[in-house]
Amino acid sequence: MNEIEALARANVRELTPYQSARRLGGNGDVWLNANEFPTAVPFQLTMQTLNRYPECQPAEVIRRYADYAGVKPEQVLVSRGADEGIELLIRAFCEPGQDAVLYCPPTYGMYSVSAETIGVDCRTVPAINGWQLDLPAIEAQLDGVKVVFVCSPNNPTGQLINPDDLRALLEMTRGRAIVVADEAYIEFCPTASLADWLNDYPHLAILRTLSKAFALAGLRCGFTLANAPLIQMLLKVIAPYPLSTPVADIAAQALSAEGIAAMRQRVAETLDNRQYLLEQLGTLPGVDQVFESQTNYLLVRFDRSQPLFQRLWDCGIILRNQHKQPGLEECLRISIGTRAECQRLLDALNQLAVRANQETL
Question: Is the pTM of this model over 0.90?
Answer without folding.
Answer: yes
